[in-house]
Design brief:
single chain, Rieske Iron-sulfur Protein, six-stranded antiparallel sheet, three-stranded antiparallel sheet, 9 strands, binds FE2/S2 (inorganic) cluster
């Protein structure tokens, strides 16, 4: 069974629509990024599955983030890449707002 780590990312007010927050915390085995797309929150592993690139530096369009290095786009809802060179999905994580804070349950996939 996958390990689950619950992380308070930030107050929701610090992550307005169009913004992304990269979480690189000691308790996480890998960085996680949280995106606010038109008021909807998405959390995925930050590192592209093709090479060591931060997806938080990418461009978001139509609920997908495009890797800044080779332009594979990952669906923020499923983690699936839509085009090569990346072929492996990134992990998605459950994210919710609790008492005004953005909370990520790292290790629990986003429900489909
Ligand atoms: S590093 Fe992301 S697509 Fe190559």
């Amino acid at each position: 069974m996958a390990e689950v780590t619950r992380v308070v990312a930030c107050p929701l007010a610090q992550l307005p629509p169009g913004e992304v927050l990269r979480l690189d915390r000691a308790e996480l085995r890998a960085p996680v990024s949280v995106f606010n797309v038109d008021g909807e929150l998405y959390a995925i592993d930050d590192t592209c599955t093709h090479a060591d690139e931060s997806l938080s530096e990418g461009w978001v369009e139509d609920c997908a983030v495009e890797c800044p290095r080779h332009a594979s786009a990952f669906d923020l809802r499923t983690g699936q890449p839509s085009s090569p060179p990346a072929i492996t999905p990134v992990r998605t994580h459950l994210v919710e707002v609790v008492d005004g804070d953005v909370v990520v349950e790292v290790g629990t996939p986003r429900p489909r």
